[in-house]
Design a protein that fits this description.
This protein is of the alpha+beta class. Among the domains are: 316 residues, Beta-galactosidase, Chain A, domain 5 (Distorted Sandwich), CATH 2.70.98.60; 93 residues, Golgi alpha-mannosidase II (Immunoglobulin-like, Sandwich), CATH 2.60.40.1180. Helix content is 19%, strand content 32%. The strands form seven sheets. Strands 6, 7, 8, 9, 11, 12, 14, 15, 19 and 20 form a ten-stranded antiparallel β-sheet that branches. Strands 21-22-23-26-27-28-29-30 form an eight-stranded parallel β-barrel, surrounded by five helices. Strand 1 and strand 2 form a beta hairpin. 53% of the residues are buried. The model has no long low-confidence stretch (mean pLDDT 97). The protein binds alpha-D-galactopyranose (GLA).
């Protein structure tokens, strides 16, 4: 049993292999957080010594106990305006106009298996021991019931949380904040690590001590965003990659989000996370229930790498439903940077022939194949083929691509519309817009109102027909602007605050139907690169285009930041032309290949423009990658600093090590690297070693070493001269010592 309740102490205990989570029902029914951390056998209620710190009110029925205040005690789901002045998890307005709730325990249930969330992606059990705890809290005055859900995955060391909020009263109420979860850490010193960025430079790690007050990581853009990824870490100041305490918080949501982290007057930390409350207001009529998105929590005392491994495995095995989460991925070639909008069937076929010769598996026809889409000002929404570019339609093109022995993939951006499109001319009201005002445009496009079922149904039907009518084995699902003018025509005024979230629910309903009906189609998410790189999308899309920036040097930082939360199996990574189209930088083909091999490899260039030598090199890259791919996709990813990494097989008998030197110096210090993840008792041989990007080719290292020597002593590489030079080593265990 991973969940237990002791009626005498009124303590709940959630146990995973490496963690204990405890909470307790307080003297008058408040649900108090006791502990989340390394396993401990006893109840930790002694830690909550009540103390009067002044100006912290007491619940009326505990007014004789001045020290007993919701403002100082750690809670499982904090309320507004009830004497706790810290960040609330729930903030509502009743029909009579009051705001606060005072949530008290009303019952609980423990069940085998994992709960599901209506209309939302969530983690699933693989029949290996997940249990669900549901605790109901009630506030009689507001007539509201909150069901707190906990999914405990003992082997995976993950606890999932979500909440269902029901209006049990007789009048409507409005939720202005409905967080997924609250985590109160009454003791300890914590730093916040989060992943900010911008288009073409996503998920840059930033770590800083907390300051008193509230720090908020959020997106009010209707998407999880390039700017602030929803994934955050709280870690002790001394935490490194390999040691130290850290909590990972991974929302399973693709829309606007917030995470408030508050360092309060007593030095306690509260983290509250959920749907963005910018403009959010959800009306609950009597009897109605609102379900929050899920959030995944993990804790480890073994440092950031261990935290990353937990989420990498969990997202692959317990969140992504696609068979491609573990099945081999095709090496693809994408037409975007090869041709942009300027192509015809002959050019695409020439690219396909070139791709086949290089050894790729799949050709992706990117933007520009439909409507009057000759630039980004027109055509979005018109998902029928542009016969001027592709005479005879998609069918003959796909047949010819298939005849070459390649699979065929297609780009779509179904959530959007250009004003200059037949769809917009037929349905101008389908776009989000505020009455009486022209909407803000972004990339010349408007956002379709996915909160309306008829619009969501139309999108589903349109994409499903493409998949039914043509032999399409891959879809790149793009989203190239954020939401503004969020007003939906068919919803009453007092429900307009629901539109952003209903929009995301509309998106999920489309993806749910499509992935159920077409399980053999590989879906790659995209939002101007990695603008919607989140666990919500990963439930449907086993891989996501990591960034529109394909420069190998920039990708080092982007992929490094991404790896804290997300597995390499989720990272779409392409080799593109040099000089790079986003930065103008020249990098050697070998360096571009080595960096892209840290994800799901593809190419995004015109093979016709390659020299014979480059073609040979790419053929070799693809051959090498086929050998490495299982390690990259399913192995454990270790960060060896910011510019080096390795993937180690589950049995620890194979490893792929990549070291890069982004800024070679004259007379450099020795390039020394200690490996990770190997079996100290094994012996390893360098089965293959290649240098890339080197102006002078050093002698490859050869030999066999004990795992201990490589882990504790490390390897010293020769000086590497060149532009972004580096080395790639494939290690194999020869025997146990
Ligand atoms: C976005 C994507 C690119 C490409 C273009 C096409 O920017 O991230 O990869 O598909 O759209 O317009």
């Amino acid at each position: 049993m991973s969940i237990s309740y002791d009626a005498e102490s009124r303590v709940f205990r959630l146990e995973t292999q490496n963690t204990t989570y405890q909470m307790q029902i307080g003297p008058v029914g408040h649900l108090l957080h006791l502990y989340y951390g390394r396993p401990v056998p006893d109840a930790l209620d002694y830690r909550l010594l009540p103390r009067d710190c002044g100006f912290s009110p007491n619940p009326y029925d505990l007014r004789e106990h001045r020290g007993w205040s919701l403002d100082t005690l750690p809670q499982e789901y904090s309320s507004a305006d009830n004497g706790d002045f810290r960040c609330p998890s729930i903030d509502l307005r009743t029909a009579s106009g009051f705001r606060g709730t005072d949530l008290r325990y009303a019952g609980h249930e423990i069940q085998k298996g994992k709960y599901t969330l209506e209309g939302l992606p969530s983690a699933f059990d693989r029949e290996d021991g997940c249990e669900t705890l549901s605790i109901t809290l009630k506030d009689e005055a507001a007539g509201v019931a909150v069901e707190l859900l906990y999914g405990v995955f003992p082997r995976q060391n993950v606890i999932t949380r979500a909440a269902r909020i029901t209006n049990g009263g007789v009048e409507a109420l409005w939720l202005n904040r409905a967080a997924s979860a609250c985590l109160d850490l009454p003791f300890g010193s914590w730093e916040l690590m989060h992943f900010h960025g911008r288009h073409c430079m996503e998920r840059q790690p930033e770590r800083a001590p907390l300051i008193h007050g509230v720090q908020t990581i959020s997106s009010s853009r209707g998407a999880s965003s390039h700017q602030h990824n929803p994934f955050v870490i709280l870690c002790a100041p001394e935490t490194t990659e390999d040691t130290g305490s850290c909590f990972g918080v991974m929302p399973v949501y693709s829309g606007g989000h917030f995470t408030d982290v508050e360092l309060d007057q007593s030095g306690a930390v509260r983290l509250v996370t959920g749907i963005s409350d910018a403009g959010f207001s959800w009306k609950l009529d009597p009897g109605e229930t609102f379900t929050t998105p899920e959030v995944l929590f993990t804790y480890t005392h073994q440092g950031l790498t261990h935290l990353s491994h937990t989420f990498h495995r969990f997202l692959r095995q317990n969140l992504c439903r696609s068979k491609f989460a573990s099945a081999a991925r095709p090496v693809l070639i994408n037409s975007w940077e090869a041709a942009y909008f300027d192509f015809d069937a002959d050019l695409i076929l020439t690219i396909a022939e070139g791709a086949k010769e290089l050894g790729a598996d799949l050709l992706v026809l990117d933007d520009g194949w439909f409507g009057r889409r000759n630039h980004d000002k027109a055509g979005l929404g018109d998902w029928y083929v542009n016969e001027e570019k592709l005479p005879g339609g998609l069918e003959p093109l796909i047949r010819k691509v298939n005849d070459l022995g390649l699979q065929f993939g297609l780009w779509v951006e179904p959530e959007m519309v250009n004003e200059d499109s037949d769809l917009y001319r037929a349905h101008p009201d389908w776009a989000l817009r505020v009455p009486g005002r022209k909407p803000a445009v972004s990339r010349d496009q408007l956002v379709l109102d996915l909160s309306r079922p008829e619009v969501a149904d139309w999108i589903y039907e349109t994409i499903a027909s493409l998949l039914r009518d043509y032999h399409i084995q891959y879809i790149k699902w793009d989203m190239n602007r954020h939401l503004s003018d969020v007003f939906s025509r068919d919803i009453p005024a007092d429900r307009q605050g629901e539109v952003s979230h209903r929009w995301v629910l509309g998106l999920y309903s489309i993806l749910e139907r499509l992935t159920t009906e077409f399980p053999d189609v590989l879906l790659e998410g995209c939002a101007g690169g990695g603008g919607r790189f989140d666990a919500g999308m990963l439930a449907y899309c086993p891989q996501i285009w990591c960034s529109d920036n394909t420069d190998a040097y920039s990708r080092l930082a982007i992929q490094h930041g991404t790896s804290y939360g997300y597995p390499a199996s989720a990272v779409g990574a392409h080799v593109s032309a040099s000089p790079n189209h986003q930065t103008g930088r020249r990098t050697p083909l070998g360096s571009r290949g080595a960096v892209a091999m840290a994800g799901m490899l593809g190419y995004e260039l015109d093979p016709g423009k390659l020299t014979e030598e480059e073609r040979l090199e790419i053929r070799q890259q693809i051959r090498d990658y086929r050998e490495f791919a299982p390690l990259v996709q399913l192995g454990d990813h270790y960060r060896l600093g910011e510019n080096a990494w390795m993937f180690v097989s589950e049995k620890r008998d194979r490893a792929l090590v990549t070291v890069t030197v982004p800024a070679p110096e004259g007379n450099p210090r020795p390039l020394h690297i200690r490996l990770k993840g190997l079996n100290p008792e094994g012996r390893y041989q360098i089965r293959r070693m290649t240098y890339f990007g080197c102006a002078l080719q050093p002698e490859p290292l050869q030999g066999t070493w004990s795992g201990a020597a490589l882990l504790y002593g490390g390897l010293t590489l020769p000086q590497l001269f060149g532009d972004l030079p580096g080395a790639q080593l494939l290690l194999e265990q020869t025997e146990a010592l």
